[in-house]
Amino acid sequence: MIDRPIDSTGFFDAFSKFVETSQTGPWLERLNARYRALVHSNHDIIRGARVLDLASHDGRFTFAALRAGARRVVGIEHDAQLIRTSYENMEFYGVPRDAYDFVEGDVFDHITEVERCDVVFCFGILYHINHHMLLLSKIAAIEPLSLIIDSKLSGMDGAVIEVRSPVAGSPPPEGSEVEGHPTKAALEAMLSSFGWTFEYFDWHASGLTDLGHMNDYRAGTRVSLVVTCNEERYPREVRERAVRSVFALQENRRTQWFVIMDVASQFEVSPQKLRVWVREAERAASRARIAGPRG
Q: Which of 65, 128, 158, 162 has the fewest other C-beta atoms within 10 Å?
């Protein structure tokens, strides 16, 4: 854990190497504004916490979290060059090596394999994927206390995911790369399904949308929010009892969801969260069968 700077208004002015290594809009005003909204305003939940930084890019927000007092940060990034750049940036600014680590690969493959965390950063990744519930389920499986999201939104009506091309927009041309932009209603429905609560950062009240290169936040097509995932972590024995109840009561896989809803009500946990526990137990049983008896 390293001390945060006193001045939060121009954070990246003091650490401008991250502007040089950025591959996603290297605008100093925008980086400073995002630091204030995503890190500085959440200092209370970051200080002393173990943080998981998804799609950590060049390590900018891993570094920012450490300056805000995080105990340790692990970033996951699929781009090998950005991983190398992240280590170089940390070394350049003299960050103690035991305070951070970076894992190269897909977040879906590694999110449940890294060390336990208290806070998850999900900055600029949610709209790049098409498996939103899978990502949120994997986050739920590691039971962080908080999740901080920064994402583009679709302007469509209803709780829908708009499939777009990152280059050509919507509808995407045949054969193009596609992204899934959730509407605000869809994002809230997915988060609520886990029993999570959330609070949006008020970009307009902050005055930060008056800065340059902030059109998406100003228009409301990009939002930031803090999600409270677990006010308290459920003891393992409670989880195991709930899962055993589901397995004992379900007649077959087709009836499982109805059983999950009933059992979730008994244990005062959201059905989606219980479903995550059930899937974990099913995968563990499958691995045990494949491994076979020992001895």
A: 158
